Amino acid sequence: MYVINAGELSKKENYRMLTSIVTPRPIAFISSLSGDGILNAAPFSYFNIVSADPPLISVAVGRKDGKQKDTAVNILETKEFVVHVTDEDNVKEVNETSAGLPPEQSEVDKAGLTPVVSSTVAVPSIKESTVRLECRLEHHQVFDGEDSSTDLIIGRILSYSIEDNLIKDGRVQTEKMKPVSRLGGKKYARLGKVFELDRPE
């Protein structure tokens, strides 16, 4: 076995290692609203569910040059945000929103996406997403590294908005949702082959 001490790696080296090992990763496409009413949107692949009771999700927002990203700033200010599923139909537009725009410019406008009124939060949702999780900030914690810091956001899901044709027997039909996941570097993946295993009793 090839052993590497994570503490001896730079941020970039740890990033490359982690993103090539922890795959596939779901992509949270998050919309948030600034105090000035600017709609921000950005993708994050350091994202997952935390629990079902209460329904919680987590997203890690790394700081750039020590400065908080707009998504973290907005969520901490308004306490609300919307997580959208990134799928085969919207992944190119979602990728466009990862551009480093200044806070006064909207990535939604730049990518040609359509904001729509959300059902339970003031932050607009994105029409081009078929599955949306409207969230309220539950907890925020900062983790400091040697070169940078990360804002860990825990959100409580207030409501699910799902296209009618995706719902069956109280759950989303994942194959129809066509989610896209993030791999290492510039690589992404579709759902691929699906199989089942019975849990042991």
Number of helices: 5
**Main sheet makeup:** 7 strands, antiparallel
CATH class group: Mainly Beta
Radius of gyration, in angstroms, nearest whole number: 17 Å
Tertiary shape: globular
Order of helices and strands: HEEEEEHEHHEEEEEEHEE
Number of domains: 1
**Which strand order spans the largest sheet, edge to edge or round the barrel?**
3-2-6-9-10-5-4
CATH topology: Pnp Oxidase, Chain A
Q: What is the helix fraction of residues, given as a range?
A: 10-25%
In short:
By secondary structure, this protein is α+β, with helices and mostly antiparallel strands. It has helices at 11-21, 70-78, 91-96, 107-110, 174-177; strands at residues 25-26, 28-33, 39-44, 47-52, 55-62, 80-85, 115-116, 125-126, 131-144, 149-162, 167-168, 171-172, 181-182, 188-189.
List the helices and strands and how they pair.
Layout lengths: L10 H11 L3 E2 L1 E6 L5 E6 L2 E6 L2 E8 L7 H9 L1 E6 L5 H6 L10 H4 L4 E2 L8 E2 L4 E14 L4 E14 L4 E2 L2 E2 L1 H4 L3 E2 L5 E2 L12
Antiparallel strand pairs: 1-13, 2-3, 2-6, 4-5, 5-10, 6-9, 7-8, 9-10, 11-12, 13-14
Keywords: Flavoprotein, FMN
Cofactor: FMN
Family: Belongs to the flavoredoxin family.
Describe the protein's architecture and organization.
The radius of gyration is 17 Å and the shape is globular. It has helices spanning 11-21, 70-78, 91-96, 107-110, 174-177; strands at residues 25-26, 28-33, 39-44, 47-52, 55-62, 80-85, 115-116, 125-126, 131-144, 149-162, 167-168, 171-172, 181-182, 188-189. The chain has a seven-stranded antiparallel sheet, with helices on one face. A three-stranded antiparallel sheet has the order 1-13-14, with no helix packed on it. A two-stranded antiparallel ribbon has the order 7-8. It is of the alpha+beta class. It has a single domain (26-182), classed as Pnp Oxidase, Chain A. The protein is 17% helix and 37% strand. The chain starts with 10 loop residues before the first helix and ends in a 12-residue tail after the last strand.
